[in-house]
From TrEMBL:
Descriptive protein name: Riboflavin biosynthesis protein RibD
CMP/dCMP-type deaminase domain location: 2-124
Active site: E53
Keywords assigned by UniProt, alphabetized: Hydrolase, Metal-binding, Multifunctional enzyme, NADP, Oxidoreductase, Riboflavin biosynthesis, Zinc
Family: In the C-terminal section; belongs to the HTP reductase family. In the N-terminal section; belongs to the cytidine and deoxycytidylate deaminase family.
Gene symbol of the encoding locus: ribD
Catalyzed reactions per annotation: 5-amino-6-(5-phospho-D-ribitylamino)uracil + NADP(+) = 5-amino-6-(5-phospho-D-ribosylamino)uracil + NADPH + H(+); 2,5-diamino-6-hydroxy-4-(5-phosphoribosylamino)-pyrimidine + H2O + H(+) = 5-amino-6-(5-phospho-D-ribosylamino)uracil + NH4(+)
Cofactor, how bound (note): Binds 1 zinc ion.
Amino acid sequence: MKDDVFYMKIAIANAKAMKGQTSPNPLVGAVIVQGGEIVGIGAHLKAGEPHAEIHALQMAGEKAKDADMYVTLEPCTHHGKTGPCTEAIINSGIKRVLIATQDPNPLVAGKGVSLLKQAGIEVEEGICKREADRLNVPFFHLIQTDFPYVILKSAISLDGKIATARQESKWITGTEAREEVKRLRQEADAVITGVETIIQDDAGLIVKDSIMTQPIRVILDSTLRIPLHAKCLTDHMAETIICTSRTYDQKKYDQLIQKGFHVFITSGEHRTDIHEVLKMLKERSVMSVLVEAGGNVSASFLEASLVNEAVIYMAPLLIGGKHAPTFFEGEGVKKLKEAIRPADIEYSMVGKDLKMTMRFQ
């Protein structure tokens, strides 16, 4: 068992290294061991490319016969852009497969394990299950709810402000926290913000100096107030979708369409319907979303119970000011018993800033 955990943790580490690259597919790592020696190792690199098991089998070659395979997620059984991994494993002569966690995808869910056992391969499940489950929280959430996984990020002062009363916000947190935010953006398939953030900060919402695909930029703009000279419309760094309500400005809509932008009209009367926005993103194979916005947009997601995880960086400074914006505005709760509470919370220090990671049911 001790060796099994060791090899599975190597598979998990390889899968984790691909974070931000495989969507809408899950993160998967595989290790093949023959006589106490690693003879094959692999990770799923990108959707449409070979799965982790195939990379490991190709590396192992003939040494895969009678070997053990450690894989972080149940091998697939269906034909998609690549062939089924179970078939390749069976044909390779692997004698034992250790699986960290089952795939909730109805196309797989238990079928991979069943096929391997029918072929006479010994199968063990549950090695490092908790770590493997944490790898693919967004993937599991999308499969089980049909909604992208939503992470809300904010940088605040000790008194909960995200800017001064004059809208100055650069920079509340330190460089270390800002570097982490770059990683959060890179790992997300889409970044959502409100038009007010574009007007006030001219936010580009890109990951600077990245060689990876930039996340889709989604601007919530109920009346289409977005300036045509905004950076997100003119820098050509990433796809931008403007989401609006039924009370949108027709003239601005025509201008945006003429310039080739995608404007998504929701059924909201005076506000952009964020449920419809998330459904639209799901149809575009978006698995995870990062919300980086002002207090009203953050409140709309929190009050609608659409936030799965909140990452808050709290800086050791006080801003004050009755009219300085906070990260959670909206209507607010009437009674303390109605307060939104996380299911669990983790604390850590990032430079001089306190990082709080909260997960919601």
